[in-house]
Amino acid sequence: MTQTVWCQWSDIAVPSGWTITNADLDAMSPEQLAQISIYVPRYMAGVKALSYTEKMPNLQLLQLLMAGYDDAIAFMKDGQKLCNARGVHDFSTSELAISMILAHFKNHAEFARHQTQGSWHHKTAGSLYGKRIAIVGAGSIGSKLAAMLTIFETQVDLFASYARENIKSMDELSSNAHLYDCIVLVVPLTDKTRNLIDKKILGSMKDGSLIVNVARGPVINTQDLMDELSKGRISAALDVTDPEPLPDNHPLWSMPNCQIIPHVGGDSDAFEPQARKYLEQQFAEIAQGLPLRNEIDWKNS
User: Which of 175, 218, 235, 296 falls between 20 and 30 A from 116, CA-CA?
Assistant: First the structure.
């Protein structure tokens, strides 16, 4: 079946008979927009990129380049399919999470402050060896992160929406948060995960522990997080925040026990080659009549 694809990369291989374009969407006529059947919004372009779907009356598939899909659901219509880019960001996001965990336990922030002062302060650094880590989210990123952490001889527990072999239920997290040196969040944002991490869980975390968010900002209740950080008892490492972007002079910026990274978890030089490969595989399989990769049940999300 012939398809017309809009994608930021117009040189991606598509099946014979298909058309691919990256023409300026604002300059396209209603007739041209009506021809688009598969739309791949520009990566990290936000709600504006998603809003173009409202001008595509014959859209069949909205194919995201992100693992997160919460913003897209509001734009979906009956008869349309939604796919995310599960698997594309596994390495980059896992690498970032590990770098933030290491920066915390190896005292990087403290040593960086001493460097700016031109002052040598030796102290024994921490280590990941033997640490117990909870990964909240057992999807492809959570599984990749767990595999990467094995090299540090950590003890890793995975949590998901329901318990299964080697995976605990999220319901168990609240009563077990005190067991972990680090809790890493990699869940999608849904009604069930919004404010998943609140004052109850934060307050029960062990002294000196770290909460890492490479999921979505609202998975953590920001006010509850700030209240707990202000006690100096735990630390946070955030690739995502609520609100986002984090406004100038927001209290989180000035908290010494909070690392803030401007949402770069998946945005690395590993992204484009993996995204291109994924799209070409997706398109080839669509042409063969095979099931979609990473289809989201958006009506029940």
Answer: 235
Q: Note whether residue 265 is domain-resident.
A: no
Residues 95 and 232 in one domain: yes
Per-residue confidence (pLDDT) for residue 264, from 0 to 100:
94
Please tell me the distance from the alpha carbon of residue 198 to that of residue 153, in angstroms, as a whole number: 29
Rounded distance, CA 127 to CA 101, Å? 10
Give tens-digit pLDDT for 181-238: 999 999 999 999 999 999 999 999 999 999 999 999 999 999 999 999 999 999 999 9
pTM, entire model: 0.91
Q: Are 12 and 34 members of one domain?
A: yes
Residues 103 and 73 in one domain: no
Residues 254 and 219 in one domain: yes
Write out the residue range of the structural domain in which residue 121 sits: 90-260
